[in-house]
Specification:
DHBP_synth_RibB-like_a/b_dom; TC-AMP_synthase_SUA5; Threonylcarbamoyl-AMP synthase; L-threonylcarbamoyladenylate synthase; DHBP synthase; 23% helix
Amino acid sequence: LVAVPTDTVYGVACLAQDSAAVRSIYSLKGRNGAKPLAICLGDVERLYRYCHVNVPDELLRDLLPGPVTLVLERSEELNKDLNPFTSLVGVRIPDHPFMRDLARACPGPLALTSANISSQGSTLTVQEFQDLWPQLSLVIDGGPIGDIQSPECRLGSTVVDLSVSGKFSIIRPGCALTPTVEILKKKYGLVPESS
């Protein structure tokens, strides 16, 4: 398990295809086993290997890389032990050069979640999750992320479900809600799932 800076908050990452590492993330965070983990990739092209995509490639590229998690139908390539209770998976491509290089250097996707105990606030400096350090193999200090004084900076990525053709639903508003919804509605004509 490695603590990493992203474009939104500090995260904890491991190889998504390594079932023992995935279990370790849940244990580290005290996370409910029914809460899914996102995967992190370095490039949009790699997304097609792990997900069934039913939106235009241009839409993916308008939102990624960026502070958005896109929830799509998972493919058979993804580790069965990662989120075994759902056919969907959230995908992150952080707009952060180090994270993209790290993801590109790994043979498969990274499982990625925020560096904090579940139900506690997201972290913007490595000092804020010092209590987790002893259980991590490595802590990468990328300096403070965003404005530490601003509560909006701790919201994490905007999580949007695109698994139903022509529709979207916001799972977590996050830090990029307005621009994300604008792109989905205005440019691509998607409608909110509830309507």
